[in-house]
Structures are given as structure tokens and as C-alpha cells.
Specification:
homodimer, 420 residues, Rossmann fold, 2 domains
Amino acid sequence: MAKKNAFYAQSGGVTAVINASACGVIEAARANRNKIGKIYAGKNGIIGALREELIDTSKETPRTIAALKHTPSGAFGSCRHKLKSFDDNPAEYERLIEVFKAHNIGYFFYNGGGDSADTCLKVSQLSEKMGYPIQAIHIPKTVDNDLPLTDNCPGFGSVAKYVAVSTKEASLDIASMCASSTKVFILEVMGRHAGWIAAAGGLAADQAGDPPHIILFPEIAFNREKFLKKVAQTVKKNGYCVIVASEGAQYKNGTLIADSGNTDAFGHKQLGGVAPTLAGMIKSELGLKYHWALADYLQRSARHIASSTDVEQAYAVGKTAVELALAGKNAVMVSIERGKGKRYSWRLGEAPLDKIANVEKMMPRSFISRDGFAITETARDYLAPLIQGEDYPPYKNGVPVYARTKNLLVEKKLKDTFKV
Amino acid sequence: MAKKNAFYAQSGGVTAVINASACGVIEAARANRNKIGKIYAGKNGIIGALREELIDTSKETPRTIAALKHTPSGAFGSCRHKLKSFDDNPAEYERLIEVFKAHNIGYFFYNGGGDSADTCLKVSQLSEKMGYPIQAIHIPKTVDNDLPLTDNCPGFGSVAKYVAVSTKEASLDIASMCASSTKVFILEVMGRHAGWIAAAGGLAADQAGDPPHIILFPEIAFNREKFLKKVAQTVKKNGYCVIVASEGAQYKNGTLIADSGNTDAFGHKQLGGVAPTLAGMIKSELGLKYHWALADYLQRSARHIASSTDVEQAYAVGKTAVELALAGKNAVMVSIERGKGKRYSWRLGEAPLDKIANVEKMMPRSFISRDGFAITETARDYLAPLIQGEDYPPYKNGVPVYARTKNLLVEKKLKDTFKV
């Protein structure tokens, strides 16, 4: 078999460790030079393939590639471009195969979440249909932790650690101020549909009664009265109340709290996310002084406080993707399997892409306390190992030293340009 | 001279390292048992003294006290209670002296910002007037870095490091997403009057042209047109734009951007901080997709990413306060003096409290670029040493292990209660 090149692309919202997966792919491919040719990375993800903008990773030094392991975000660029169904836009898929053909690409490594698992599957199916063989391997990545058939998703452990540590620290802050000042602190975190990230806030507690006192999950219908009652009771008991709220927290009818149209003192509708809406509610109904934080990108790019478990897994799924490809696999995702023992252990497996694409894994009800405001011990047992270990990046002048890739493009071979 | 006890209190907004100062005070006092009796800490700051709620720190183990060095926020509680002027409320000052007398307190260590420097001075003056000798020593603390007569303030270096690191990480995130998604990222940071914290965002840049592209300081009048033009130009040139905005950023007439009454699509006034207001402006005028983060308490409690320079200085000012007291000093603040050499060095000095109380140190104009959107090399030379070094706390189960003090109160000796 002639030596084929590989294509690697990052997809969707980036994470603190997606570059560790890139590092795993590139280092494993370089270690198999006799079997795999060059590794091209899509400039800005799959868009780079469509536009024939392929980054030649062989131009990057081994040192730069190694540094990807401690560099957050997508070094080659990512994108939110979701390929339509084949029937709706066959041209996009055909273009991908054309580009792959032109550059002798035989391996397609797609590093993303549910949407990209779907794309990866379609590329594999189409390659068969068009008679140009491509092995498509999906490398899981999502802070949302919502992919099925894997115990967890690389990227989640680090955002979970960030949220747990930040909740713990901010809780100490409000605890020391509450006697004469702020009584309620709200941290808004990511998670449009699944409450995994908010749940991680619960890991801030070492003992029963420790903050956070309330967690709001998208999975549990928001009840305004019950919530306000719990806030008031908590402040009465502890002097303060710490809330971790998922951006996707919603009412029973599906209205997001963020969109629920709280009105201010002037009767104007108050815009903003979950945190300011809850804060407005608490101020107007309970008259309590509040502070709130919106972590936004900080939470998913916080490589400085990454979980070493997460970093190791992210690297390993990248490396293993290459090994699966070399073993002839196709249309599979590298999965993480948890060992049965009491002590946490994990190993990698594989899962068929047709069982993954477009399935979202929600928090099981057994992970959420009966009152809907906390995580259970079962959830804690699941979550805690994923934030274990610190993996600090190197520092210079007080800030982390992150990789700077050259991102040099391969010369184009196709005459046509393609509008994305 | 009979052995006197000491009183220590934390004041105002807490920081990642104020407990390191507490550690310095208590360890230094314990090392001088022959000269200083017990160290009482005010429960919730000066309120604890007024209410005669004194925490007996001798009940804490050496290990717990040592752990304060890596524990954020105020372990004994802080407060926002500002004593009125002596003429407006002499009862408060008289009560303080009464409580100090009842508990044989001869040393008053007050750990805070400008307001507490003022209180500290007044206590000293009153003690003279009332004939009960108290040595009042001020220990500087403020994330705002706005105290005069000291090169910098403990607490600032760590929030500066947090802001620099977070800005760098979030910048990598948006850089990798901007081709098809978010174009503008705004990080809102603390600093009501002085732009020191926002300035620290500039340390995220390693090279000219690196993000952040725009910093908004309270010291520079906000010009909406100039700002929007700069955003548009930056996005055109780099594909994205990163903004660090001080919460105190304001228009020429003193109106805070946060209060400037942006209106939403429905004509309603949009509430919120600087970041959402700027985001709304960018969306409506330039049509660019944005993300924004509000760090709030996270930035000042982020002990996990504290500057080791800051931790060392915070500890040292506490320790030195005790040494100054033992040397007979009164009505002084421990100050940090920067060495003249090219290589950063510092030593501690003292500054008279009457020159400190109620003076705010703003960013010099020479620290801000001509266009008002960046820091100069002079600012960088000043700021960079303050974020040097990492001082990681110990971890257990993936989260930092922070001190838990017992906070046991001393038996009251006064019959009267005092309403605060």
C-alpha cells in the first residue's frame, strides 16, 4: 500500500486540551513515518479542507508540537461550520473527497463533538460511495461532556476543574464579606443542554454543608418560588449563598432563565444571561446584595489550571486515533472506558460513529439530588477523578508560554476555489 | 513594660493574599512571645472590635496559621464598615479604645486599603487623646493598587497575574474561533477609579501586535466613535479583537459606560456592567459577534494562580508590621520600596499614615499609550515584576486545600453591647 497523508482538523468550541490531542496525533504519526506521510491540519477546521487551505505540520519543530500539549485552544483554528446533510449539499462532501484525493490523504482525523462525529461518519460513507478510500476516525472533544459511548470527553475535566476551583475560591471570598456586604454570589457556567459543567461546581465542597449551596441544571425545571425560598433559607442559615448556574437552566416550558424577561425597577426588560437574571430576581424579591461572574471563554481556555487526567486522556485519544487508523479501522471514535475497580482507572476503546452522531448524553437523574439543587455522591464519584492532578504549563515573565505554530500552507493543487 | 496583646483585623474587599499578611503578623508575634501576648483577630474586621467579638488566634495550630499563606480571602472575616469621622461618631472610636483596654491590647494592626489607613490613623490619634497607649500600624492590602507612598499594594500582583493569564488564554480561544464565529471578546475587570488591574491585561502580550488590542482605563475619557473605529480596524486586520475593560471606564462627563443606558432592540435600557454595554454597542454599530466575561470575585480570590512575588510581599508586610510595632513605631504603614537596579528588587519601609489616608494613586499618563488604548513600555516595566513567579497551593482530590480556622471567640469582658 502506497504511503498516504493524513488530515487533522479541530471542530467547534475549543478547549484547554484539544491541542494535546493534536500533539498526540502528530507525534504518533511522526513515529510512524514509514506508514503515514505528511500530516496536514485544516486551517480553521473543516473550512480549511473545503478551501484547500492545508497547514503543513511537518514545518513545525518537534518542540513546538510537544508544546501543543500544554497550549489551550485550537492552534490550527477551529470553526462552527456544520456540514449540511449529503442530500442538501452534496457539493461540500464531494469537494472534501476531491481535496483529499489531490493531496493523497487517506486518513481523516476529526477532533470535535457530536456534530463533527456526524461529519466524520458521512465522510467515511461517501468515500466508500465515491470509491476513494478514506479512513475516518473521530477524536472526541467537548467541554460539554455530552458524547455517548465514552465515559467522558477530553476537555471536560479541565473546565470542571476550573469551575470547582473558582467556586471554592469565590465562596471563601463571599464568606468573608457577607457579615456587612454581599450575601449571594452567582457563577454562570457553560452547558446549553447538559448540566455536567455546573455539576462540577459541586466538587468545590469538601464537607457536607460547604458551598455551593445551589446548582441549577438544564435537566431540572426551574421553579422560581422554590429557588428563592432556598436562597433565603441558605442566607439565613449560613449568612451567604453560593449558586452555580448552567447557562441552559430553564423553566418547565423550555424558556431559558436567561431569556425570561426579568424587569428592572423601571419596568424595563432586563437582558443578559442566567446570572444577571437570577441576581435581579434575588434583589427584587429578597432584597439581598449580590455579585455574579460570567466565566465564558475563561473557563474553557484555562490551561493554567487544567486537570492532568484530562491532559493525559486528550493526548492519548489523539495518539490512539492514529493507531486505530493504522490497524485499518474506519468510522469509529476513540472512546474512554472507566475501569471497574474502586480506584479510578481508564483505558481507551473504540465506538462506532453511527451510534454517536447527534446523540446528547444528559446528566442522569441519579446524579442530581432529590431537591434538584445539588449533586449526589454517585455524581461525585463519577466527576472527582476527572479533575485529578495538576499539569502546569511553563511560565516566563509571569505568564504561561504557549506554542506559536507557523501554520504554513501547502501549495494548492486544485484549480477551482470553493465558496464556504 | 507589661506584655500587651495585639489586635489584627482585615478590612474591605479581600484578596488572594491578605491571609498571607495575617500569617506574617501571627507568626512574627508568636516568635516574640516574650514581648507580645495574644493576637486577637476581629471577627469580620473592625466590626469584631466594636462588638467585642475577638477571635483568639492562639487556638489555631501552627499548621493552620502556616496554611493561611496559601489561602485566599479573609479567614477571620472582613467588612465594608467605614468608621465615620470622630466628630460625627465619637462613640465608635471610644468603644474601640474601651475594648482594647478591656483586653489589654496595645497593638492595632489594620490590614486594608485607603479607608482603613484613615481609621488606623484616627485610632492612633484617639488613643493619645484618651491617654490609653495603642500603637497603630497599617498593613497595606488592595487589589486596586491605589495606595500612595508604596511602590505597589499586596493583593494587586495576584489579580494582575490572573488578568494577564486569563486575557492570554481567552485570546487564544477567540483567535481559533474567529474565522467563522466570534470576532470580539471583552473581559471586564475590577478598578472603579484606577486602571491598574485593566493595565495588567496588557501583560498578556509577548510581542507587539499580540492581544489585548484595546484596554479601557477609568483615567482615559471614553470616546465611543474612536473606540468603535479601533474595534473595526482591529477585526479587519487580525480577524478578531480582544478588549480588557475596567469597570470604572467612563465618558468625559463622568458617566460610567456601565450606566450609559445602551438600549436594546426593543428600545429598553440595557442594564449591566461595562462588558455587556460595550458588547451591545459593537453588535448594534458594527454587527460583530461577541463574547464577554465578567471575572468579578474570581479575579481577586484566584489563589491558585497567585503571583509568588505578591505572596512574599504580603507575608513580609505582615511580619514587618509586628517588627515596627516592637520598635515603638506608631501611625505608620508598612510600604514596599522598589530597588533602583534594572533587575527587580524590593525592600520594606514605612510611611506616615497622615500622608496616606484618603489619597488614591491613579495610573500615571505616561503608563498609557498616546491613543489611550494600551500600556506603554514604562507601564510594562513597572507591572511585569509584580506578577513574577507561581506559588501553587497544595491540592487534594483535584481542588486546593485551603486553611479552615476555628475562629473561637474570647470571652467578653464588657457589660455593654454595642450596636454596629
